Amino acid sequence: MNYSGKYKGLTLIEVLITMAIITILAAVVYPAYVDVTGRSNRSEAQRELSRLAFLQEQFFADNRTYTADMTDLGAPADPYITESGNYSIDAIVGAGGTTFDLKATAKGNQAEVDADCTTLSIDEALVKTASSESCWEH
User: Fold this and answer.
1) How far is the CA of 81 from the CAs of 15, 87, 89, 90, 124, in angstroms?
2) Distance CA 59, CA 14 (A)
């Protein structure tokens, strides 16, 4: 066999080095992607809690009581499931209907991805609480 020219193609070593580089990059990028996705889903829950707190205040202005039934606030079901399906939001109304606490609980994969912030809540005084102090920060 007479090879009188440059070889065309990749050697096994070159392919293995390329695969190693891709694997290392994936190992670094994937956790960051999961973190960003979890925070993005959490912002949906924060937005919905704030919106529903506003609707609770409107309901109180009309009825002189808060409601524990999310459908009274225009939600399609009680408890309310966010559009992405990552959070379940329910209302807890105090005795006499003069206080409320809206609580968002992470569901499914969101509970695993964002394990530090599995619950978020807001009350009638707009006090925001969560399972971790940093959950309401952006």
Assistant:
1) 47, 6, 6, 9, 21
2) 67
The C-alpha atoms of residue 40 and residue 60 are separated, in whole angstroms, by 31
Q: Three-class SS of residue 111?
A: helix
Interval 24-83: pLDDT, tens? 998 988 888 888 888 888 999 999 999 999 999 999 999 999 999 999 999 898 889 999
| Cα–Cα distance measured from residue 63 to residue 76, given in angstroms and rounded to the nearest whole number | 20
Give the CA dihedral 36, 42, 43, 44, nearest 10 degrees: 120
The reported pTM is 0.76
Q: Helix (H, G, I), strand (E, B), or coil: what is residue 51?
A: helix
Contacts of 52 (CB under 8 A, 6+ apart): 70, 73, 75, 80, 89, 91, 102
Q: Is residue 4 over pLDDT 60? A: no
